[in-house]
Each structure stands twice: as C-alpha cells, then as structure tokens.
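Example 4.3 (complexes with small molecules)
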Amino acid sequence: MENTNKKLLEVNNLKTYFYQEDGIVKAVDDISFHIDKGETIGIVGESGCGKSITSLSVLRLVPRNKGKIAGGTIKYYIDGENPIDITALDPRGTEVRKIRGKEIAMIFQEPMTSLHPVFTVGNQIIEVVRLQLGMTKKEARERAIEMLRLVGIASPEQRVDNYPHELSGGMRQRVMIAMALSCDPNLLIADEPTTALDVTIEAQILDLMQDLQNRIGMAIMFITHDLQVIGEMSDRVNVMYAGKIVETGTIDDIYHNSKHPYTQGLLKSIPQIGEKKRLVPIKGTVPNTVDLPSSCYFAPRCEFAMEICHKKEPPDFKVGSEQIAKCWLHKSREEVS
Ligand code: SF4
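Answer. The structure with iron/sulfur cluster bound is encoded below.
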C-alpha cells in the first residue's frame, strides 16, 4: 500500500464530552493521532469505547443537543501545507459542508440509515455531486452511473433508477461507497462498514475498498470492533478503551507484539485460522465514562492490575519504535507527553 508520508489529518488532545444530568460523559478523552495521505489507519475497540464519536467529531457531526468538542484540535491539511482546524469551524457553516463529502466522506454500518428510502440511489448520488462539484444534471447522472460501475454494481444504467429497498444489503453498502467516493474525497471514514454483512459479502466489500484506495489514492480511517478486519485493512492501529487510545502501533506491533493487556484480551477473543483453541472473551464490560476516578479504566478487568493502576492514570509509554502503550507495566520505558 502506498504511503506518501504526507500529513492529511492531525488530531491533537481531542476531547468530546456529553453533558448529562448525572454528570459528564467523556466519550472521547484527550486522544491524539494522525493520518498520512493515502494510508489506512484502524481505530478498534468494543462498543462504547468512543471510536464512532471520534469520527463524528472529525466531521463535526456530534449530536448538538448534549455533546460538544470540549478541547483539542483536528487539523485537516487540504494542500499538505496549510491546515484548517475543523474544531474552530461552525458545524452548520459552509466551510464544514465543503469539507464533508468533498474532502472527507463517511460510510456507516447500516446503509439504510444514510440512504433515503423514497429517492432512487441514482438521485441520491446525483444530489451529492451537483452540490459539491457543481455538475449539470446530465453530467451528475453520468457520474452516478460511473460510480456504480466502479463499485462493481452490474447493469449500473438500470440500477441507477432503483430504490434502496430494491437492492440487497451488500449492494446497498456498495451504493454507499459509491456515494461517498463520488466527489473524490481525500479521506474516507468507514465506521463498521461490514458489520451488518455476512462474511462473503464482507470480504468482497473489504477487497473493493482496498482496490478503490489503490486506484484513487484516498486515505481510510477504518473503525471497527473487530481486530481481524483491521488486520486486513490497516497500516497502523489505534486501540481505544473508555474514550482513550490505550495502544498505538503498526499492524505487526499490535498483532504480534502487543504491550497492552486490553489489546491482548481483544486478540485472544478472535478466532485464528487453523487454531482449535477456545476463544477467551474479556471479562467484564466497558465502564460508564461518567465521572470516572483517576486510575487505569481497564483495572477492574485487568489480570495484571497493580496497586498504582487503581490510583493513578497511566501515561503513554514508548514501547517500540512506533508503538505506544498506556499501561503501568511499562513504567521503566520512556514516557511520551
Ligand atoms: Fe492493567 Fe495496570 Fe496496565 Fe491498566 S495500567 S492495563 S490495570 S496493568
């Protein structure tokens, strides 16, 4: 996979909080990561770990009634040089709308929540490209057909006039990808895009995304609870737990040399091809992130927990050339600020 090593997105100390009657939910709590042009990064964790709120924060789509970005910056480098701080933009303003779709596009787990049931799939793509690229109706229809063909939909000239309910789940996900890529975004955020699909269709969709990435050169931020899927897709992985990134590394670091007990637990809970070992689920559940005490949030579930783990939040420790783990087991290593 080509990696031009040019910075595309840089998230620094992002905090996205929800203000509820019983306290503040720190859905995303002080996370930092970056994505280079053309690369794929994975964000993995159990449901409720903050991975989807991270992606909604990048697009300024956090539900406005109770949630807001409480701190940090999200810098998007349109030309590789001069970044725009997305957190400083009005979430309803034109600048954000120009970034959404044209620069950064998103696909979700369930296409029916994003595809409008009363419009044909063609009209939905046409509307996006007319709005973002200023095409005429005829040009936009041709673009819609071209995009459906690109994502492997047979007879796109006919399918363009279908309604979402006339397509299978796998085809609807392809339409979502076609719609997301119709404006040639530089970054595609894929939030559990294959979770609702059976394994054969999942494999086809993952292949399709990799193929399109190779052809178009976009970067992908791939969000999933499934470390196995991440392994097939990503160059680098961020593992999230209770709103924090607890381990970062290359796919090799994470798969073969993981240093955080939570990541190790996730790995033990996925089936390995050819192995007959019993799967070991991580005991316990992700904590409710309302007013958590200062500690390692994983301590109640961690078999290695020590006294300090219950008293003090671990900082990030550098445990490899590109690998960082937020865990007191590595306190002899260099601390990363
Ligand atoms: Fe386990 Fe302590 Fe490391 Fe947390 S800091 S993961 S409790 S060993």
